[in-house]
Every structure is written in C-alpha cells, then in structure tokens.
Amino acid sequence: MTKAFCLICSTYRKKRDRRSFFKVPECNIYSNSIEKELIERRRAEWLKLSKRNYNISQLFVCSDHFVSGKPAYV
C-alpha cells in the first residue's frame, strides 16, 4: 500500500489523521475529449502548486487544500 503524501504541504497521512488524501487526476482510456482536457488542466494546476518536482506515479493532495474538503467531480 502506498503511503499518502501531500505534494503541496509535504505531509504524510498519519494513523489518526482527520485529513483525506486525493489522487492527482489522471486521464484514463474511458475519458472523452472534454474530460481529458479538464483533467489535464486540473493536473497541471495541482502540479504547479507543488513545492518540488515529483517523479512518483501516485501523487496526492490533502483535504486541507480544498474549500469543501474534497475536489470537484469531473
């Protein structure tokens, strides 16, 4: 299991943490062209907020960085 790490504030999920961690959006084979464009824009914005350049496949952002506590649906 991958340990969740927030790419914006550089914190790891702890056992009794009340934060939720959400994966940085990725396009999949089932996404249509409009969804792909939206996902790519969101991914670029999330990665811009990152303090470093990460080369890991599973990137997360914690709920502290969302107004509602979770990302918007596609």
Automatic annotation (TrEMBL):
<keyword id="KW-0863">Zinc-finger</keyword>
<keyword id="KW-0479">Metal-binding</keyword>
<keyword id="KW-0862">Zinc</keyword>
<protein>
    <recommendedName>
        <fullName>THAP-type domain-containing protein</fullName>
    </recommendedName>
</protein>
<dbReference type="Pfam" id="PF05485">
    <property type="entry name" value="THAP"/>
</dbReference>
<keyword id="KW-0238">DNA-binding</keyword>
<feature type="domain" description="THAP-type">
    <location>
        <begin position="8"/>
        <end position="66"/>
    </location>
</feature>
<dbReference type="InterPro" id="IPR006612">
    <property type="entry name" value="THAP_Znf"/>
</dbReference>
